[in-house]
């Protein structure tokens, strides 16, 4: 599974993307965020307030209770400020 | 179905060029509405806004927003141009142009697209002051309110 | 008070020229909305629309409408260009451009101005077909309805 | 008092403008329209349906019950179709 990070999520984690293999117990976006926070201080700092983190699954916006089964690309980012 | 023209670009956006093609050679277009969003610097301290974007999803999401506007309003053509990279004060960040037979559809489609671009298009703005990077622009609750105006059933 | 630029002209209207000056050299303008109304010819039988106007009152009434929009919406600049004389299919009849700090005011001011131009600006359209003059375009009740949207107290 | 006519009002009356001196009993726009209709078939035809005729007094829109006292320029025209 490919993970992409943008804006201050990217800066805090210290990487723009990585490829990971979460355990089978990680079924939803919320599970994924919780599991990522166990991977070190940088993740904990970036994802400490999950409500501030928006998610896209294969380039579609998704809620935190969405399933990640079969998803190839997960993006995590702050609320958008385009336009 | 409406004609869509969507581009996410690193170069300056030219209003005249983007709108000229909308009604070129056509005699059934009665109304063209354009919205141009510019980089502001009220304090005189901003050197540039740096727009980070999610390549691929940015184009896809803008296209989905434009398709949604086309399904909802009777428009003929929708063009969207969105900058990424460094944008200086006074430069265009985003251009939305809509063409239709009658004016109300063109106005509403352009306004709808802008409201959803603000809340759904994957772009993030970082301010660069003369003294260096100064942080990410926070999302505005007024943009969520603006989007919520359109939440009634289509 | 907003800056107003109003002109009633016999020559073709250039969107780029009229809008370029709106935000030129400014860094406090965040939003520019333009409306362009074009001469339509859906049946392919129209040679031209001839726009008769009331010289003096046309400029005065458009100015009054723009002042009313400036009093009602938080806009910085309003530009209006209106053609008179013969206008060919595909050519611009009217251009309204509004500039403001935030987008909603620019959208609403442009829409307000168009609705009142339709019902209050002293212009009358006569159709010229290939076979000769064919009569005056009738006012539309939908334009009265559009104007009535704004009748709530300012 | 200067009278201006536009569009089909102008075409039916057969003149774009004229200067008139209505009698003192003509006090309102409505009075003026009634008085003009007595001036001949062309006027009668142009103004036969007063509700179809819009009026400006010194270049301001006015209703038919408006006074014309002191007005220098009266314009009569159909509903507008600008924009």
UniProtKB/TrEMBL annotation, chains A, D:
CDD domains noted in UniProt: Ubl_MoaD
Designated name of the protein: Molybdopterin synthase sulfur carrier subunit
Pfam families: ThiS (PF02597)
NCBIfam families assigned to the protein according to its UniProt record, in alphabetical order: moaD
Automatic annotation (TrEMBL), chains B, C:
EC number: 2.8.1.12
Region (Disordered): 133-154
Biased composition range(s): Basic and acidic residues: 141-154
UniProt xrefs under Gene3D superfamilies: Molybdopterin biosynthesis MoaE subunit
Swiss-Prot/TrEMBL keywords: Molybdenum cofactor biosynthesis, Transferase
Source species, domain of life: Bacteria
Catalytic reaction annotation: 2 [molybdopterin-synthase sulfur-carrier protein]-C-terminal-Gly-aminoethanethioate + cyclic pyranopterin phosphate + H2O = molybdopterin + 2 [molybdopterin-synthase sulfur-carrier protein]-C-terminal Gly-Gly + 2 H(+)
Pathway: Cofactor biosynthesis; molybdopterin biosynthesis
InterPro entries tied to this protein: MoaE_sf (IPR036563), Mopterin_biosynth_MoaE (IPR003448)
One Pfam family it belongs to: MoaE
CDD domains given in the database record: MoaE
GO molecular function, a single term: molybdopterin synthase activity
General function of this protein: Converts molybdopterin precursor Z into molybdopterin. This requires the incorporation of two sulfur atoms into precursor Z to generate a dithiolene group. The sulfur is provided by MoaD.
Similarity remark: Belongs to the MoaE family.
Subunit structure, as described in the record: Heterotetramer of 2 MoaD subunits and 2 MoaE subunits. Also stable as homodimer. The enzyme changes between these two forms during catalysis.
Protein name as annotated: Molybdopterin synthase catalytic subunit
Source species of the chain: Kaistia dalseonensis
């Amino acid at each position: 599974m490919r993970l992409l990070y943008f804006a201050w999520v990217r800066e805090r984690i210290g990487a723009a993307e990585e490829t990971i293999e979460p355990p089978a117990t990680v079924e939803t976006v919320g599970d994924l965020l919780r599991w990522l926070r166990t991977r070190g201080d940088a993740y904990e700092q970036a994802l400490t307030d999950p409500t501030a983190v928006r998610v896209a699954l294969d380039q579609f916006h998704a809620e935190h209770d969405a399933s990640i089964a079969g998803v190839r690309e997960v993006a995590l980012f702050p609320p958008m400020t385009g336009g | 179905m409406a004609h869509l023209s969507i581009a996410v670009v690193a170069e300056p956006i030219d209003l005249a060029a983007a709108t000229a093609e909308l009604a070129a050679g056509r005699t059934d277009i009665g109304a063209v509405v354009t919205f141009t969003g510019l980089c502001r610097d009220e304090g005189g301290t901003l050197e540039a806004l740096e727009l980070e974007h999610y390549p691929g999803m940015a184009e896809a999401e803008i296209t989905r927003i434009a398709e949604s506007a086309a399904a909802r309003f009777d428009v003929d053509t929708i063009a969207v141009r969105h900058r990424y990279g460094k944008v200086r004060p006074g430069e265009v960040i985003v251009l939305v142009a809509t063409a239709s037979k009658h004016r109300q559809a063109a106005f509403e489609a352009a306004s709808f697209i802008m409201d959803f671009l603000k809340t759904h298009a994957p772009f993030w703005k970082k301010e660069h002051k003369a003294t260096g990077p100064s942080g990410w622009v926070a999302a505005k609750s007024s943009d969520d309110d603006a989007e919520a105006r359109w939440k009634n059933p289509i």
